[in-house]
Amino acid sequence: MGRATSSQRYCHRFNQAVEPSSYCPISHPTKSSDFFSSHVRSLYIRGGHPPIMWRSINGVLKACQKVQKLGLIFLWVDDSLRDDDAWREMRPQMLSLPMMLFKPTHRHFHSKFSAEQPSIFANITHLELIVDNTGPESWSWSSLADLKTLTHLCFSTLSIVDPECLEVAREHIATATPFFPHSLVVCVLAIQYARLDWRLQKVLKDGRWNIDDRVVVALTESYYDRRRGNEGEWIQKEMVRRQEPYRELGSGCPWESMISFWDRAERKIAERRQAQSGE
Fold it and tell me: Tens digit of pLDDT for each residue in 209-242?
């Protein structure tokens, strides 16, 4: 085993600290009331949880308002996580959230969700949105241009059995592209799960959704590595590899893996541009 990084050790200490408190509010007998808000800078929660756990997650969010990196990765969410109080002071720089988490009134990127509620996107640089079946017409994509600090944008699919999620993600990108902020370096369509019979080459070669050269497709390692023949060569040329979701948690904190993933996407864009300039 290699030596743990400081971020890994801190995540482990934080996990130990919150484990005794299964229900909100989050507290610890040896810590001050603002300890978690003052010290916790990254938070990542992934997977399915029984209903009794949603209140606990809500309590963790309320206790950790100063996080700079926040990831909540779920296939469904409880209404308790839509509580504005859980997000009131959060201004992370790196953010991964399911799109279903946002109330219809909050599906925009303006500086405020409402007169009383500043936007969680105010300081965002890296944003990953987990796509559900909510189409682009329900979001104000024109407001994406308001995110002056956004450099990395990702639409991720977590659907295991239905390619409809992939189609919805493509529609979001097609709608959002005209409003990419000038600061944006890369936009990724991350296909987290895919079946070999989806004929991805045919689906993804439809050029209506990726007209901007900052758009890149990412595939999980298992799919990326299994493709052979003409499609395999096309995938290696056009796409980047991303770890399976469960492997991203292998180190305890997935942020280093995610940063490596973003770096690969940036290199792919550079490779494309270099190839085009040489033609």
Answer: 778 999 999 988 777 777 656 667 778 888 898 8
Q: What is the pTM of this model?
A: 0.81
Strands 94-98 and 69-73: parallel
Q: How many domains does the chain have?
A: 1
The helix/strand/coil state of 120 is coil
Q: Are 121 and 147 in contact (CB under 8 A)?
A: yes
Domain of 258, in residue numbers:
6-277
Q: Buried b vs exposed e over 81-118: b needs ≥16 C-beta within 10 Å?
A: beeeebbeebbbbbbbbbbbbbeeebebbeeebeeeeb
Choose among 259, 261, 246, 252: nearest CA to 5.
252
Q: Is residue 63 part of a domain?
A: yes
In a domain, 200, yes or no: yes
**Integer Rg of the chain from CA:** 19
